[in-house]
Design brief:
Length: 71
């Protein structure tokens, strides 16, 4: 049933690792993760993994949380 998962593959030749991390975080958690096309799996090239992981964690930590009606 892998067809149910929206997957991202991060190759080592990307130009802006921080931008890719921010886009993955937004795609994973947009609409509180309830979108049928939200990112559910991220595959990162081994050569990039140690550098990319903290960027993705930071991008996720920077996402706004809470009730959007209270802004």
């Amino acid at each position: 049933r892998d067809y149910l998962f929206y997957q991202m593959v991060v190759e080592p030749d990307i130009d802006d690792e921080s931008d890719v991390a921010r886009r993955i975080a937004a795609a994973a958690y947009g609409y509180a993760g309830q979108s049928c096309i939200s990112v559910q799996r991220v595959f990162v090239a081994a050569a990039l993994a140690d550098r990319f992981r903290p960027l993705l964690v930071a991008a996720m930590a920077a996402l706004a949380t809470g009730d959007p009606a209270e802004d």
